[in-house]
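Help wanted!
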Amino acid sequence: MDFASFLIQTLNSLQYGLLLFLVASGLTLVFGIMGIINLAHGSFYMIGAYLAFVLASLTGNLFAAIALGIPLALLFGAFLEWALFSHLYKRDHLEQVLLTYGLILIFEEVRSLLVGDEVHGVDIPAVFSASIQLSDVLSYPVYRLVISAVCIVLAVALYFVIQRTRLGMMIRAGNHDRVMVEALGININMIYRVVFALGVALAALAGMLAAPISSVFPNMGSHVLIISFVIVVIGGIGSVWGALVAALVIGFADTFGKVLVPELSGMVVYLVMAAVLLWRPEGIFKKG
Amino acid sequence: MKTTQQIFGKAALALALAATCGAVAAQAQPKVKVGLMLPSTGTYASPGTAIGNGFKLFVTEQGGKLGGREVEYFSVDDESDPSKATENANKLVKRDKVDVLVGTVHSGVALAMAKVARENKTIFLVANAGADELTGPLCAPTLFRTSFSAWQPAYAMGKVVADKGHKRVVTLTWKYSFGQQSIEGFKESFEKGGGKIVKEMTLPFPNVEFQPFLTEIAALKPDAVYVFFAGAGAAKFVRDYHAAGLKSSIPLYASGFLTDGTLDAMGEAGKGLQTTLHYADGLPNKKDAAFRLNYAKTYKLQPDVYAMQGYDAAQLYHAGLSAAGGDPAKQAEIIKAMEAAKVDSPRGTFTLSKAHNPVQDIYLREVQGGQNKVVSTLIKGLADPARGCKM
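Answered by r_m:
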């Protein structure tokens, strides 16, 4: 691999890792703060992508689709938390897994009834449809860089909200000791609802942003779900910062794995996970 | 009055007798049981539905009959899940005791079905799954394929790329047997034509993060790229290839599955792509025109290659069953007739090879106006080499 290729592959790794972070951040928040194993998280990614497809074909514009899609995803998340997940906090993980696995099946079936099983494409907004010439034959779509930029902005915003705001303080406190927070007169249920809605919206936003480059297809959430769990485990459950670092590690491992050790490319990600867990069984960043 | 009553009584008796006789006659003509094992959920739901539609369309055209017999369908959703395939096939073969088993999209599922069908001596019509093994090492007197082998379109494409004067080619596919067979078939004819595969790249199925490979292709700068992808992965790959600016400098070739059912999702990026397959849009034969019209009328959908393969599975069995006088139990006669059949398919007439795979024309197609328009008939009557088949 020459130096130019190396740089481009680094760019690929960063871009892939940042997109993975967007999905995994919601999962780690819900998992770490609410203690819910949410297998349906990948479905929210799928729902986001389909929202982008449907809304973009209605409005003719991906930005409009995202602007409409985010509030819809927030509402949907809040509704799910109220109707289903709020009954799960005191139950064990098996029941959570059963419910959320059931949701995957329901979401896929509803998707099939409403939009069918065909593969769809979403057009990249005209403003970002240009490409940057990287080498004599290879160019890099501007849209991919835009996605990366959005992901970075969101990572910083999430960090700020959780570490520097009152809401973030309450979320962190709720994570440590639910009973104590309630005793102090804070409505913990409302906080959980906000966190869950936020998690759904983050996954859906990732799906909406990825729709133009990944195309929209049935079961698209399942691969993302597995890799997101890997990231959450590597990063340390509940740590947004850890999710970011882990997502980038996975981005690099996957990209360079495919090029340098193609025979093992399906395993590289899991080998990295195994290595990290041997070194730090609780993930790179401990819960906190 | 008495006589009238007697006449009435006799007439009633006669009628009753006639009715019973009729019932007896109907019982002597049991329905032919068709087992459809196709995916109706999951990634392959749409081709699965198309195969079933195609099969039923032909039966409807025959007045709801095959070989003169009424048809009764038994359906199982195989979910394209190989781990459930044996159990699902057993439901149809052992529980429902179907006369003929028809399936499926996923090759892994079809391999398991072939095993169940062979053990129970049930006729098995493969209406899509292209794994070379089915009419290779696993060939059987009772197994017939109305679709293709992975080798066929791939072999034809190798010839095209070599004839265009491309010398150095990079290949890319998912690392699973069908993808790799598609690469092997291509390699065989491409190397025969004087070409060289510079690098064979694979990624795990169904991973769709192609960016690292595109970077690698740009660094290697081959004369052309040959890939096997299908479904959602195909749409994404073509979009990515286009977005990376490679399409204008390094031509992309593939087996026809790249552009079947995925053109809408590809949009602009798909334009002008050349692929090879045993079917195409705009074929100049009357059978195809009639098939497309009927299909569109019946299902309010455009038919595709999968629907055509399902239609031909019904045609082939019809030919066999008719020769056996409509008796599904006369298996030897059915098999003999199917082996000798000339199927008047929408793709053009085909016969079957010794290993029961279609000997068929392979077309070169080009994406124009959202369709896979036929460019030329590349190879007439291409037969799969049926490596490993002892029959």
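OP: Thanks! One thing I noticed: The mean pLDDT of chain B is 91.
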